[in-house]
């Protein structure tokens, strides 16, 4: 989850893109189709307009010491406490909560689900604060991470406070869905923790020791779980039955995995002019991202070469070495696999969604949002 | 909260001890009065019997990676995952939940409040896991702390998971008090975070820069808040009205402050044969505990001497220097103040309790537990 939605605007890395259940949408140039990114962008903007006042009110309720760190993390204050214009992220998760509520229960459900949307965003940001401490990441949303500014202890405490705030919002919500939603969100937190644990544990192991199934399970727990939970909470607030809630959870999970696959492709082959990161940053960090694990477990000659490269000591700024490693991952089939797998996961996401919403037109913003996170053109 | 209830059996450091509302209990030798520690010991044992199965069931529901760390932290597993006899602490907080429920609502309320008791114990242990990481404490309940065994990242994650588990228990509880209880527990977590922040911030400041009011406010947030919350949750499950819930919260807070004062006295003048720590451990660590801050702000000659001693570089194992420092704190009135303040806080606790329970005999185990945590004879 650490890497999710924190990056600059990026063009699609030429990923073969799935449409809705076998029916590809026109996608050339500025086509005004519903899935061309404009609908998603509008949805995200509307979500920020709805969510931000509630989110800020929740943060303002914190004691001064915690509020300061939280407002910095969300981009609403500079480190010295003066107001900042803000870059609180793209609000994908709250947008999924609201879109799911709307798709299954109409505008009234969407309005009712606002606190749940804020709670999900708070949980997401609690995990970002903690993951940055654990991973020693120094930059997020183009600013120094909170722990680099306030110290690890305060970043941990602010994360703890945001988790509490999230569950408090639901505990105070008189809506009948708030109890099941809180239980589900708490379960999701536990899954996110297990996912982050698996990620750090994987990174410590030798390149050849990580299986693709493990890497996929880790990504599902670390990235898919909260997207699934966001959709499930929206469904709960729409009064959906258990099967529909599970279908929405499945939709979010699979879309989340598709996103992670694309994010990992960008982490290797993304254009630094768009990603804001040096080319092949993930390779330089010897990260066992999904394309790398796929390449390592491909049984090809290139796999053995990659294992050797990954076993070598890290050389900082070795652009030639990174380019060579990227080529080896590609020769071992890591890029093709990731792109095909992303397409497959998107297809599964659409399939899950159709269990709860058989008519594609009723899926509302959900498909647009899923397209958005996997296409990354806006 | 880091230091609370983690220590060996300790004798009372000759604290002037308050009885119930002006009426001192006989307290010589093995007197069998209700407040001689036997009632509290029996209550705590019964609480462990009730709470442990639920607590273990909650921990068993965690994914393997998180379960392992949690079971180690609670003393139920060794680091290698083999079963351990367990030392999960004295269960003061769950005992307060159950005693408060029982005092205000009888046996049925006590039974109903069991999940809340487990939730409070989970929150307490989440904060211990995180505080140990932040404070770099290496020992807890006579065992290496979780972060020294599993690393900081895993200890942070296990703490996160325990917070989620606590709020999930309440979210799933069909009892009408569970929503208000969850909101209150989440608020308490935020207060605990602010308290821990204040503690670490205070420790970084120069000795003369910390006021006694600040130190007391920090202790109230860090130690008093969760004891108050425990009592308040018990009251909520007994169906008490807002005033009685507030009174129970006040009782727990004041008793928690009394405890912290006594704990701080022990941290300086405690007998190492009983505390299991070297004499004057808090002084060696230059900790700004309550007696030290009181001494520093006493305006006496000894205060100036203490400020100078605290400003000097720490010398490890300098028994003579520590003994001299302890004497200076005492000469500056730090010990007397702490003992008098503890007695005053206990009197306030009893007063708060009498607002909700005018007849002392109906206070049940609450007074016995408050006496227990401040007397520390068993």
From TrEMBL, chains A, B:
- Region Disordered: list its residue ranges: 1-35
Q: Does the keyword Manganese apply?
A: no
Gene3D superfamilies according to UniProt: Farnesyl Diphosphate Synthase
Entry GO MF terms = metal ion binding; prenyltransferase activity
Q: One Pfam family of this protein, by short name?
A: polyprenyl_synt
The record's InterPro entries line, in alphabetical order, gives:
Isoprenoid_synthase_dom_sf, Polyprenyl_synt, Polyprenyl_synt_CS
| Cytoplasm as UniProt keyword | no
Sorted keywords for this record are:
Magnesium, Metal-binding, Transferase
Q: Name one GO biological process term.
A: isoprenoid biosynthetic process
Instruction: Tell me which family the UniProt entry assigns to this protein.
Output: Belongs to the FPP/GGPP synthase family.
Q: Which PANTHER family match?
A: GERANYLGERANYL DIPHOSPHATE SYNTHASE, GERANYLGERANYL PYROPHOSPHATE SYNTHASE
The protein in question is named: Polyprenyl synthetase
């Amino acid at each position: 989850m650490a890497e999710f939605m924190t990056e600059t605007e990026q063009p699609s890395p030429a990923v073969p893109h799935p449409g809705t259940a076998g029916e590809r949408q026109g996608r050339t140039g500025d086509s005004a189709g519903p899935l061309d990114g404009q609908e998603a962008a509008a949805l995200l903007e509307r979500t920020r307009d709805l969510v931000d006042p509630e989110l800020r009110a929740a943060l303002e309720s914190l004691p001064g010491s915690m509020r300061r760190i939280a407002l910095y993390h969300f981009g609403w204050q500079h480190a010295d406490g003066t107001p900042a214009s803000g870059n609180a992220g793209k609000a994908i998760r709250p947008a999924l909560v609201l879109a799911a509520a709307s798709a299954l229960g109409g505008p009234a459900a969407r309005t009712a689900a606002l606190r749940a949307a804020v709670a999900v965003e708070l949980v997401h940001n609690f995990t970002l604060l903690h993951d940055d401490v654990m991973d020693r990441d120094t930059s997020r949303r183009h600013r120094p991470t909170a722990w680099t500014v306030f110290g690890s202890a305060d970043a941990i405490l602010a994360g703890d406070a945001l988790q509490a705030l999230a569950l408090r919002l639901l505990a105070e919500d008189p809506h009948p869905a708030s109890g099941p939603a809180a239980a589900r969100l708490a379960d999701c937190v536990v899954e996110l923790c297990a996912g982050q644990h698996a990620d750090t544990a994987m990174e410590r192991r030798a390149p050849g020791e990580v299986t693709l199934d493990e890497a996929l399970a880790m990504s599902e727990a670390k990235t898919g779980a909260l997207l699934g939970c966001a959709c499930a909470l929206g469904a709960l607030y729409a009064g959906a039955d258990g099967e529909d809630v599970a279908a929405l959870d499945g939709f979010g999970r699979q879309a989340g995995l598709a996103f992670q696959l694309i994010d990992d492709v960008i982490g290797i082959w993304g254009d630094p002019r768009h990603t804001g990161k040096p080319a092949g940053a993930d390779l330089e960090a010897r990260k066992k991202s999904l394309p790398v694990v796929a390449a390592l477990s491909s049984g090809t000659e290139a796999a053995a070469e990659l294992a050797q490269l990954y076993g070598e000591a890290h050389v900082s700024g070795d652009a030639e070495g990174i380019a060579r490693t990227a080529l080896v991952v590609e020769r071992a089939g890591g890029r093709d696999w990731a792109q095909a797998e992303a397409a497959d996961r998107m297809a599964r996401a659409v399939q899950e969604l159709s269990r709860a919403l058989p008519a594609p037109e009723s899926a509302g913003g959900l498909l647009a949002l899923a397209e958005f996170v996997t296409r990354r053109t806006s």
